[in-house]
Design brief:
The chain is α/β, with parallel strands linked by helices and 365 residues long. The protein has two domains: 246 residues, 3-Layer(aba) Sandwich (Rossmann fold); 97 residues, UDP-galactose 4-epimerase, domain 1 (Alpha-Beta Complex), CATH 3.90.25.10. It contains twelve helices and 15 strands. The strands form four sheets. Strands 3-2-1-4-5-6-11 form a seven-stranded parallel β-sheet, sandwiched between helices. Strands 8-15-14-13 form a four-stranded mixed β-sheet. Helix 1 packs across helix 9, helix 4 runs parallel beside helix 6 and helix 10 packs across helix 12. The longest helix has 30 residues. About 2% of the residues have low confidence.
Length: 365
């Protein structure tokens, strides 16, 4: 049987790396689009294409990387024409909500118009009936929520340039599906985290700080809105649902979420508990502090610079449709297990980082 071919945009990101591993295990030929950069940004996937065993045995690499960009339609056409994928997973995006307020034009170019460029590339190459497309959508579409929980029929009310750009991407994907008969679907993913999450995202910022504070390499953690509540799942579980959406008989949009909601404060409390520190919260608003019960030290403070211009207070998804039609299990990894996985990984990461620094220092002496 002919091997399925998958093309992943954003393959170097958290979701892209997990999805690449998942598809390789399924026997796919995996291709990824990589943005040209003066610095290395392939840390999450190096084990898939720099494996010594693969090189020594002169076997094919587990993944094939192509230089391209969501802001360059010619590169997208060239890559799709070369690879002729049976499935495309569009995960590439400027995905940081707060940063989107600083770079709104670029966010629109990459996240909104970039999706159009991808869909149009498939269409002009005549692959409408051959290639299935997964578009990574987001719970930020719901923004100022109109109902709780949010489901596929909930009205959108985005509250950031990122959310607005993703709303265009959602509707243009749906429009191409209805206009050209393309199998193109939107996965409305709620917050999904992992040990591979970028360090600027709040969950990873918390687990990394807990590990550093525990090991004596950081004094304090500064956060924004502690009352913000999110539906947090494990990214490794969510990529399975992306794949299931493209195996479904009918092209449909799905909410991908756990159906549980927790606050930033809860996440921080659990993360510190995993490293043996019990926090007590005192004060309110910008005066709130997280205090180590054992020592009385203030370990967490609120800094207004981390507040968004337009806050999204709570997001809670209803995964009933995905559970019923795709038979996907949204709580394979519990919230507590997710925090534990991230903290344990960061404890190892911090330890390894400082051991390497000590070795470098001794060599330079």
């Amino acid at each position: 049987m002919k091997k399925k071919v998958a093309l992943i945009t954003g393959i170097t990101g958290q979701d892209g790396s997990f999805l690449a591993e998942f598809l390789i295990e399924k026997g796919y030929e995996v291709h990824g689009i990589l943005r040209r950069s003066s610095s290395f940004n392939t840390g999450r996937i190096e084990h898939l294409y720099l494996d010594e065993w693969v090189r020594d045995m002169k076997r094919e690499r587990l993944i094939n990387l192509h230089y391209g960009d969501m802001t360059d339609s010619s590169s997208l056409v060239r890559i799709i024409q070369t690879t002729r994928p049976s499935e495309i997973y569009n995960l590439a995006a400027q995905s940081h909500v707060k940063v989107s307020f600083d770079v709104p034009e670029y966010t629109a170019e990459a996240d909104a118009v970039g999706t159009l460029r991808l869909l149009e590339a498939v269409r002009i190459l005549g692959l409408e009936k051959e290639t299935r497309i997964y578009q990574a959508s987001t719970s930020e579409l719901f923004g100022k929520v109109q109902e709780v929980p949010q489901r596929e029929s909930t009205p959108f009310y985005p509250r950031s340039p990122y959310g607005v750009a993703k709303q265009y991407a959602f509707w243009i994907t749906k429009n191409y599906r209805e206009s050209y008969g393309m199998f193109a679907v939107n996965g409305i993913l709620f917050n999904h985290e992992s040990e591979r999450r970028g360090e600027t995202f709040v969950t990873r910022k918390i687990t990394l700080a807990a590990a550093r504070i525990k090991q004596g390499f950081q004094d304090k953690l500064y956060l924004g809105n502690l009352d913000a509540r999110r539906d947090w799942g494990y990214a490794r579980d969510y990529v399975e649902c992306m794949w299931l959406m493209l195996q479904h008989d009918i092209p449909e949009d799905f909410v991908i979420a756990t159906g549980e909601m927790h606050s930033v404060r809860e996440f921080a409390t659990l993360a510190f508990r995993e490293v043996g520190i019990r926090l007590e919260w005192k004060g309110c608003g910008v005066e709130e502090q997280g205090i180590d019960i054992a020592t009385g030290r203030v370990l967490v403070e609120v800094d207004p610079k981390y507040f968004r211009p337009c806050e999204v207070d709570q997001l809670l998804g209803d995964p009933t449709k995905a559970k019923t039609l795709l038979r996907w299990n949204p709580t394979k990894t519990s919230f507590e297990e997710l925090v534990r996985i991230m903290v344990e990984a960061d404890m190892r990461f911090v330890r390894k980082l400082h051991m390497r620094a000590e070795i470098d220092t001794s060599h330079n002496e």
